[in-house]
What does this fold into?
Amino acid sequence: MKLELGYIPIHNIQFGDPSRVEDGVLYVNAEDIKTLIMKDERVASAEVELARPGESVRITPVKDVVEPRVKVDGPGGLFPGTVSRVKTVGSGKTHVLKGAAVVTTGRIVGFQEGIIDMSGPGAQYTPFSKTNNIVLILRPRDELEPHEHEVAVRMAGLKTAAYLGELARNLTPETIETFETLPLKEGMEQYKDLPRVGYVQMLQSQGLLHDTYVYGVDAKQILPTILYPTEVMDGAIISGNCVSACDKNPTYVHQNNPIVHDLFARHGKDFNFCAMIITNENVYLADKARSSDWTAKLCEFLSLDGVIVSEEGFGNPDTDLMMNARKITDKGIKIVLLTDEYAGQDGSSQSLADAHVSADAVVSGGNANQVITLPRMGKVIGSEAYVGTIAGGWDKNKQPDGTIMVELQAITGATSEVGFGYLSAR
Amino acid sequence: MVKEIERAGIPVVHICTVTPISLTVGANRIVPAVAIPHPLGNPKLSRGEEKTLRRKIVQTALKALSTEVSDQTIFEVD
It folds into this structure.
């Protein structure tokens, strides 16, 4: 399976009519977007705001971030099973409005939603301070249950990203990247002297608004399965998560998964990046046992020599991570784990809820309990009413001078467990 | 908490869903619970069935409490 990603750089965003891309500027017709979103009868009102890198702007509570893309060649469309019809994606050509992002906010759905500061110290912790953000402020109808509210917000973000991505259909990309994964037998023949490497991505699936969708299927209900890694670049996996903002994977991160990109960068040179395996993090022990069994079985079946495993979220999924580590290692396959840490505000507590001796090569995305102080911003998109109740905040964490103290947990993408962040020990 | 109470000489049964974590942290008597969001209940069952389930879990825990163990032990609920 071969996919060409064509990048159209976006340096700025402005309101304008009609929506279009000109000279690196994305012009957005807010009325068109509102009309699109308001077709969903669950939404009572929608507003569109713009937030650019460097501005004195805070967006909160952030639910999801989505990158505008469009499929210009090959089967299927963006976000198959949700926005587009179900069709296997990941081949052909896709255009990307690189530098633009759709961010969804509005009344809180769960208690684990995030903060994006476009400038100041908070901006150094979130990757979405560097994107030109089209922010949707959504108010659901009052009688909606939280899970329906979540669906309405999720769909609004995805549809808006698809609408904006469509503007790139007939543009000429400035740069093109090509990614190819061969079918099993051909890959083995072509790269017979290279180690076989796979990527196991654990998807958040704890339920109660902690969910991820694969081709429209709730990941709680999947058995571990194999993807061509390019499928995720076309939106095969989307986030429906109100999980701690720092270490959930927003849809944007699934579309741009750095583990996939970095493995492709060395594919065919240092190793053969054979496949991506997705598994889940369910709340029943039998599910954890079954999914980790299947994950290890698929690694063995693919004759992998080495595997990278990334976790999503924390707490009981730490056990899924350790079960995967133990069972994959038992197959004689080397592993490296990616996670983050909840080591207390002073960093001295146990980092993970579970541990196993097989987890002897672990990359950390950082300590989510680390406290930072965010200065007052000139403008807030959404509402600061929830900064004390979202995960990572606490009662009266907003000071009289307007500054806010939070743990990194509250900052969208701060301790990404797929490495889509800025924290580093280097 | 399990370990601190045992340190005071009182045996403890840890009822929990994710028994691997219980093993990792060093509980000696472990009884598996139903699921993380509802450890001692099951919203899919009728009230009557759920009460039976809850009674079984508690009875298993009481049996575990009165059983001598020489190593970390998981007591499955029948």
In short: Residues 2-410 of chain A form one domain. The mean pLDDT of chain A is 96. The radius of gyration of chain A is 21 Å. DSSP finds seven helices and 25 strands in chain A.
